[in-house]
Write a structure and sequence with these properties.
alpha/beta, 7-stranded parallel beta sheet, 7 helices, 16% strand
Length: 245
């Protein structure tokens, strides 16, 4: 019996956690469809992974529903279909109390952190249902999708919404064997925190260090794989104990 090669879609793939997951899946022989706004970094990653895996890249904004729909349609017509997806693209929000938060910033964070996840889920689940072979989807939320912090209302609100959206999608997909879970990272060594004091951040975690993208990628790989076949609608916190204090 010929074993089917797994096909994955990853958003926010050019750096940080998305890149680490792409590298992990490439090492396991997955066919990869990688999305990001950064054309240069995405092309560089494609070149790096070309010896390990079949890779196709798509440069665009996942907060644009038309772009997401077009990419998923291309994946569907490629002949291999789609087995799993990591919806990871997101952004931080500037520090501001709610009364000072600019309306355009609120809308931008909502579009990037929440609407993009909805668009991805909508079209990924449509395709997976059409294929009839199930699938697995992981959404990146945050530890701040379970707890809160001051002066980050937009980020906290959108990441909490991703948590709820994941649960709803898991229920909608369950009868089709489509699993949907969320991960909730703490502070991870990625370009997103390049401007912050790493030593001070590390001290906030009971484990006294920051996490690595590779550690998160290992968790995502497990959730996408058949090893997690009875796991859906769950929230996986990977934050060095930050949120239990």
């Amino acid at each position: 019996m010929i074993q089917h090669t797994q096909v994955a879609m990853i958003t926010g793939a050019a750096s940080g956690i998305g890149k680490a997951v792409a590298e992990k899946l490439a090492g396991q022989g997955y066919i990869l469809h990688l999305l990001d706004l950064n054309a240069t970094a995405l092309a560089q990653l494609e070149a790096e992974l070309a010896t390990q895996s079949k890779v196709k890249i798509y440069v665009g904004d996942v907060s644009d529903a038309t772009f997401v729909a077009d990419v998923v349609a291309q994946i569907g017509s490629s002949g291999q279909g789609l087995d799993c997806a990591f919806n990871n693209a997101g952004m931080t929000s500037p520090a501001a109390s709610i009364d000072e938060l600019e309306l355009d910033v609120w809308q931008q964070v909502l579009d990037v952190n929440l609407n993009s996840i909805f668009y991805c889920l909508k079209y990924q689940i449509q395709l997976m249902k059409q294929q009839g072979r199930g699938g697995s989807i992981v959404n990146t939320s945050s530890m701040l999708g379970l707890i809160a912090t001051a002066h980050r209302a937009a980020y906290v609100a959108t990441k909490h919404a991703v948590t709820g959206l994941t649960k709803a999608a898991a229920l909608d997909g369950a009868e089709y064997n489509i699993r949907v879970n969320s991960i909730h990272p703490g502070y991870i060594e990625t370009p997103l925190i390049a401007h912050l004091d790493r030593q001070a951040l590390a001290a906030k975690h009971p484990i006294q260090r920051l996490g690595s993208s590779e550690e998160v990628a290992n968790l995502v790989y497990f959730l996408l794989s058949k090893e997690a076949s009875f796991v859906t609608g769950s929230q996986y916190v990977i934050d060095g104990g930050y949120s239990i204090q």
